[in-house]
UniProtKB/TrEMBL annotation:
Gene source species: Microvirga terricola
Stated name of the protein: Acyl-homoserine-lactone synthase
Keywords tagged on the record: Autoinducer synthesis, Quorum sensing, S-adenosyl-L-methionine, Transferase
Entry-linked SUPFAM superfamilies: Acyl-CoA N-acyltransferases (Nat) (SSF55729)
The UniProt record lists the keyword Transferase: yes
Superkingdom to which the source organism belongs: Bacteria
Amino acid sequence: MIHIVTPENAHLYKDEMEQAYRLRHRVFVDEMKWTDLAKPDGREIDQFDDEHAVHMLYIDDGRKVLGYQRMLPSTRPHLLSDVLPQLCEDERPAGPHIWEWTRYCVEPAHRERGRALSPVANALLSGIVEWGLESGVNTIIIEMNPLWLLRLVQLHFRTAPLGLPQPVGGQDTVAVTAAFDRRTLVRLQEMRGNCQRVLVQPANTMPLYLAS
């Protein structure tokens, strides 16, 4: 199941967030060789892990974190605005209905084998859509490998590149917006064979400054 962690409930997820930061380090530093992110303590944390971030964790019954992703509001500093602005050739998309999807990672043993999404990957993507539909968010910004474009379209996200692919961290990266609606959620539910909710708490859980 997908748990949403914000400053309001972070005290309930101290151990799980530690697991998430270490998973991020294993995936992005050890595996993907993004050495600029390396930390001596093995916890990958950056300037955007602040009170404005929304963390989504896939936690199994044993309280082990098997997957993670982070959502950042486009109305505040985020990766595309402050770290990778060169990926956006036109006016940068921003608004309360647009959030940036970052740091997506899944434990190696729980990744897909072939074309189908793994259960963890499906749940993470479904979590974004459920959360968005109930929180007034309908578009995400993604910096990703261009090979993901077709997969997103197949999942019924409506994608639009913001510029041409450029090398980032040793691989081609393109920034896109990906809009979604209930049809996207239905598609993800069809792929996993059930329509059960993946979020364990209300999807409108988000920092208080956004809810006011």
